[in-house]
Prior knowledge:
By secondary structure, the chain is an alpha/beta fold. It contains 15 helices and 16 strands. It has helices at about 1-45, 60-75, 90-105, 125-130, 165-195, 200-205, 215-220, 230-235, 265-270, 275-295, 300-315, 325-340, 345-360, 375-400, 410; strands at about 50-55, 80-85, 110-115, 120, 135, 140-145, 210, 225, 240-245, 245-250, 255-260, 415-420, 430, 435-440, 450-455, 460-465. Helix 5 runs antiparallel to helix 6 (about 200-205) and helix 13 (about 345-360) packs antiparallel against helix 14. The longest helix is centred in the first third of the chain and has 43 residues, at about 1-45.
Amino acid sequence: MKKTRAARRHGKKRAVIAKIKLGMLLLWILVCFAALLMGQEGTDEPVTVGRLSFSGVINPVSAEYIIDGITESEIQDHAAVIIEMDTPGGLVDSMEDIVQKMIDTDIPVIVYVSPPGGGAGSAGAFITIASDIAVMAPDTSIGAATPISMMPTGQGEFPGEETDEETDAETESTLMHKATNFYASYMRGLAEGRKRNADLAESMVTEAVTVTATEAMEQNIIDLIAGDIDELLALVNGRTFKTVKGEVILNLENARIAEFPMGFRREFLYTLTNPNVAYILMMLGLMGLYFELSNPGAIFPGVIGGICLILACYSFQTLPVNYAGVLLILLSVVLFILEIKVTSYGLLSMGGIVSLFLGSIMLFKSSFPDYLRVSMGTILPTVIVVTLFFALCIWLTVKAYKRKPATGDLGIVSERGVAKTRIDKDGGKVYVHGEWWNAVSDTPIEEGEKVEVIEGKNLLIKVKKVED
């Protein structure tokens, strides 16, 4: 009987242990299943692609924007970064900084030349060809990458070396030949590194060749033609890229776009680099300082003028400034000032207007593209407004010189009064314009007689007797 009870108890224990083991097994299966589901959800999560949008000239501001955007995509671990741009070209130094960042980054860089009707000229062609994958929208173009020298006339090949007028043209031609050869090889190297048509890429530098999107696709300068970003992502999906970390296969199925805007600070600084804006800022600065110097104590024009001149100097560092143009504009200001001091019957003013107009035309080198020069539509209205401003200032100044003083001993000249004491060469007292004055006279004047003020100096007036 005892054995039977013991066997029963032992059987119950075994049953309980079996149930516990079965529960643990089911729990383990559920955990594994949940982990599997979570893994599948993580696998299905769409990747993110960074997007930079830029339209305009390549300069230090736009270079900073593109470089920071690529860096941000690296930090956010984006699957790729798209640089959507439309540019006529820009500065070589800024282009080189962008290209170097594109080569060094460990994520695929896609350059998309868009919108239709846009293009990637000059520096933009280098950036497009340096990308991991180059895409263009229909009806766009690429090329014309011949470098242009920004060296001012009269400067030698090395810093501090001066040249005379006879050798300026020859020196500039030699430097341009060197620059063209260097950037031709630079472009060839970028094309060969991306397995693109190196001969055509080089001819864009040496012969300023320009091709359409269709021609670029046929001649292996770009990889794809896409109408918009969605089509671009669909075409790029599944492609293999070689980065500094090795080959990367892009899986951009349902990829999300992370926008990287330029921001207010960069947009403001970029606006300052526009040659038309720089020119207007310089004119405002000169007018403000001129008004402050001709009317000391106004303060506001001087402050605004100083700020505008500093902003103009910031703009000039990214533009091909011709110093002869700057000197002509400064000469025009000097001539306008001299018009106040010297009687020239308008000749100095005419010289100032001519100098201002010629300086405005020569301010930026004429050999550069239109986007690096001041437009005639800006020059003519500005010259007219500035000329009218200086003419107004000159007229007000001359009018102030001729205006009769309103106060003091000079302010009562020609006023009439009454002698309060006898007045002679030794002096006396008169009552003029509601005030008592010390007065002298060449002829004696008796008390009570009417007098007229003919001169005033150091609070002493000279009077004469009047009959009426």
